[in-house]
Amino acid sequence: MKNRRAIASVLASAWILCGQASLAQDVALPEDIAATTQGLIDAGLQDDVGLKFVEDLTTEIGARLAGSPDEARARVWSINELKELGFDAVRVEDFTIPYWARTRESARVTGPNAQDLVITALGGSRATPQGGLEAELVRFESLAELQAADPATIKGKIAFIDEHMYKTQNGAGYGLAVRKRSGCAKAAAEKGGVACLIRSVGTQPRRMPHTGGMSREGALGDLPAAALSGPDADQLTRLLARGPVSVNLDIGVEYADAAPSGNVIAEIEGTDLKDEIVLIGCHLDSWDLGTGALDDGAGCGIVVGAAKLIADLPTKPRRTIRVVLYGSEEVGLFGGAAYARQHAEELEQHVLAAESDFGSGRIWRFQTNFGDSALPYAAIMKEVLMPLGVSPGDNAAGGGPDIGVLRRAGVPVVTPGQDGRDYFDYHHTPDDTFDKIDAEEFRQNVAVYAAFTYIAADTGWNFRNEPMSPVGTE
């Protein structure tokens, strides 16, 4: 925040606006909760607990590939940190996942224009023979073009999808561009191809490839597959304009059917509504190229920092706040699925869920997914956050990757939308490191999460599609 005091002072008028906007609905934010929320926002804009959590995690542990000894060390580290911070019921809930890791990766144009290419293997890639496989390259501008191609043009060759990704504030470009990552190897294999290369799913112009999983089930893909840096994809396109190009692709992998992972959980136990749960989460694992600072160390720091502010209040909130550091998100949303499975009997008691998994850019929009009868509560939350530069969003929040299963089970969710215009410059690359986090933008995230989490936990409001009860009586 450039001017924390100005934003904090504007917040006072928001309480008035909340009351005015809500009078017709006979609901308003109680004065004591409003005052405490303002204090949490003020503290969040100056907080260092969450930022230190990310710095220490990425410095002392580094990359945290799902199922690896590094992810296991991160769980132990997180347990110790959360206990030191004074959270209740700190624990790990174990599960297993298929394990994949790269052991070698290289690519080289062969023949008269011989030169090295900068690549990274995609998660789930098959291994090539030792020393690599060599084949002619066939370029496609999109996955759809590859899928529609004559098999005779691909048989025995390497498919190369050269589709670009474009920057958007809400990250919508990722959903379009990522399809080639999941679909290239399968489509090429079906047509007799021997391997797949894609232009990285990323938005930066540097010679920096972006990894990522090919499958949401963690299974091995159909073929060896790798992502090229943007400049290397451009280089191949120029070479292909001059004539046929052959590439030697050499990838080594380790794979196991079952490896240990787990969700790290910490709580702030509630009072009279302690069996009801407000869940805020992130994912603890990361890809192995960088140190997982933006994806998703930042998210973990944001939810831990916000929860710590609430834990330090003189009085505990009415509902239990549960912080979940999900395991093994990157390779298949295994942590989210395991949590939903292990807590199936208490999902009805989950009154709200939110997930921070889009870096640490400033939150610019707040979406909800509440029952129609709870929309006045959504309006109050949105107006409370407006002085922080957060615009009111619609009621179609997706929640986030790991809590999607909770939303589908009927749990109300919110999406605090971060500005992601530069997120995919670093996402899944060696450049995803702590120095990319802007401290002031990070603290705005902490303030936002602390505010809506506390409101949800202490008002007792019902966010599902049921008749509203008087304030504080649910």
From TrEMBL:
The keyword Glycoprotein applies. Its main location: endoplasmic reticulum. It is found in: Endoplasmic reticulum; Golgi apparatus; Lysosome; Secreted. Residues 263-452 form the Peptidase M28 domain. One of its GO terms (molecular function) is carboxypeptidase activity. GO terms for biological process: proteolysis. Keywords: Carboxypeptidase, Endoplasmic reticulum, Glycoprotein, Golgi apparatus, Hydrolase, Lysosome, Metal-binding, Metalloprotease, Protease, Secreted, Signal, Zinc, Zymogen. InterPro entries: CPQ (IPR039866), Peptidase_M28 (IPR007484). Residues 1-24 form the signal peptide. It holds the Pfam family Peptidase_M28. GO terms for cellular component: extracellular region; lysosome. Homodimer. The monomeric form is inactive while the homodimer is active. This is Carboxypeptidase Q.
